[in-house]
Amino acid sequence: MPISLSPTRPKVLIPEKVSPDGLALLKEDFDVDEKKGLSPEELKTIIGEYEALIIRSETKVTADLIKAAKKLKVVARAGVGVDNVDVEAATQHGVIVVNSPSGNINAAAEHTIALMMAVARNIGDADASIKAGKWDRSRLTGIEAKGRTLGIVGLGKVGLTVARIANGFGMRLIAYDPYANANLAAAASVTLKPTLADVLKEADFLTLHTPLIASTRGMIGAAELATMKPTARILNVARGGMIDEDALVAALDAGKIAGAGIDVFTSEPPKPDSSASRLIAHPKVVATPHLGASTREAQENVSIDVCEQVVTILNGGLPRSAVNAPIILQEEYRTLQPFVILVEKMGSLYTQHFLTHRSASGTATKSFRTTFDIIYEGELAGLNTTKPLFAALVKGLLTPITSSDGLNINIVNAELLAKERGILINEQRSRENVEDKPYSSFVTLRARASRSTSAVRSDLSRSNSPSAKRALQSQKQSAEDQDQVIQGFVSGNKPYISRLDRFKGEFVAKGTLLICRNFDSCGKIGFVGSQLGKAGVNIRFMNVAPLHEEENGHGSGSGTEAAGAGGEEGNEALMILGVDGAVGDEVVQSLIGSEGVLEASVINF
Ligand SMILES: NC(=O)C1=CN([C@@H]2O[C@H](COP(=O)(O)OP(=O)(O)OC[C@H]3O[C@@H](n4cnc5c(N)ncnc54)[C@H](O)[C@@H]3O)[C@@H](O)[C@H]2O)C=CC1
Ligand SMILES: O=C(O)C(=O)COP(=O)(O)O
């Protein structure tokens, strides 16, 4: 396969050891830089070049770093914990943070069990002793796990896996987790306790498996240790800050706790003379340098998991495990993805078609409407989340009028950006039956007029006075008082537009389209075809969209302009032409005038 040397290939930075299995997925389309041992300053200097950053627990992704990362779209954590990432700063800058929520769970659970047995049987001490030439058997007598109580704090993915393995050892299992799933706990033979104190006082082994968050930071301090059995042993393969390291050292010294197996520390690597270093050096402690996830299998899993997500995000798709975005269920994801594309195209069509078009009076730029209704009908109406569709709409609406590399709109920041620009989007769901239609879901985008058509219509139906009715009627006919409508659906995974403004006609939203509004009479198609032919523009397809039935009989909405331009009577239609390549301004201008083309716009999807 030829290798593209294009300088525009997105760049991915990997400042830590990440398994090559996932990186192979990136190398085809992106430039992958593996640069280990960078200082925070060096990282900050180069981060501006990169679209994606893949990290483990060592890289600190601070607000400062994110600010310097002008092109960054994604921070991918090849593991679970994201406490080394300033997720809030990432959200503010529209940077998606993804992780691998289950790739290393088994590794972390098995490491916990390894530490538990190492502490129970004095493995570390025994190993050092025998290597020093001693045969010290009586001092190194241990205890058995069987029949002892394992207290689990945090009964999530790792906690439950530890429970299942420990159950096989014949241990009694208790846990404290106020948010735990009671059915899963019962199925793993775990008794949930109402308070942490209940677990602390009964545990022979205490193991921590919560994230490091405000409610868990320092959760095991001197006061908690004082309530535990003096024969108890503590395990921590979660995060350093959850145990007060100085308090644990003091409890071990005082014989209030029998031992500890610790994989994670408040400073990693531990600074000399820090509380972490004192804990590691303690003879009753078995310590490992954050090895919970360090198995070949786990590293393969997390690497493939996050690299796949990086590929998806850099190709404009939605990740499956974004930390700073709503979670999309897998089955919903499959339903949503083609509609994400459709809705983005509908938004983009709105901005390109309604805002800038050519007419006899030159190029007109209409003001951007700020209140939109988006109505989901059919299957889409039953979805739990339509957040990605909302984001796609904001992206579609704004991308044509903003510099594309300056605006990075995604599910994370779409709401904020819409708000900043004063755009109000009302999402509505309609259970209307689409069974007789060739599609299962249908989307309507309605840009509300300053005074919406529906409001004028309801005023019309309520008004008894003929003069008031006439006034309202003329108000309704003004283009600025018309809601602007785009409708679409997905069929065969392709995004179709089925209504554009007052016209109905199906066309695929793809490539470059030339859209002409003209009188629906003979000769127009030939005229446009010959003008484009003269300009060397190849026509891929052509469609005529007549007035939508709602509009027939209501007159031709923007009648003033129609009469002024051509002076012809009768209905209007849209001519939609799929063309190859660019259509220059002069070509568009040549179409408008006496031959009856009233307006034209060029849309690039
Ligand atoms: N040492 C290592 O290499 C590894 C460490 N980890 C760490 O292990 C920890 C657990 O990971 P997972 O099981 O995947 O997370 P998880 O999110 O599946 O489970 C966490 C559990 O903690 C519970 N929890 C939250 N706040 C709590 C509180 N105040 N008190 C009691 N329970 C609380 C939650 O309800 C949840 O059930 C994380 O800190 C993660 O970063 C994970 C993998 C490898
Ligand atoms: O996944 C986690 O939360 C871990 O702690 C693993 O960290 P690591 O990727 O081994 O630096």
TrEMBL record:
EC number(s) on file: 1.1.1.95
Superkingdom field: Eukaryota
Pfam family, one: 2-Hacid_dh_C
Domain D-isomer specific 2-hydroxyacid dehydrogenase NAD-binding: 113-292
Residue ranges occupied by any D-isomer specific 2-hydroxyacid dehydrogenase catalytic domain in the UniProt entry: 12-324
Catalytic activity: (2R)-3-phosphoglycerate + NAD(+) = 3-phosphooxypyruvate + NADH + H(+)
Pathway: Amino-acid biosynthesis; L-serine biosynthesis; L-serine from 3-phospho-D-glycerate: step 1/3
GO biological process: L-serine biosynthetic process
Keyword annotations of the record: Acetylation, Amino-acid biosynthesis, NAD, Oxidoreductase, Phosphoprotein, Serine biosynthesis
Gene Ontology molecular-function annotations: NAD binding; phosphoglycerate dehydrogenase activity
Region (Disordered): 454-480
InterPro entries xrefs: ACT-like_dom_sf, ASB_dom_sf, D-isomer_2_OHA_DH_cat_dom, D-isomer_DH_CS, D-isomer_DH_CS1, D-isomer_DH_NAD-bd, NAD(P)-bd_dom_sf, PGDH
Family classification: Belongs to the D-isomer specific 2-hydroxyacid dehydrogenase family.
Subunit structure, interactors included: Homotetramer.
Protein name, UniProt field: D-3-phosphoglycerate dehydrogenase
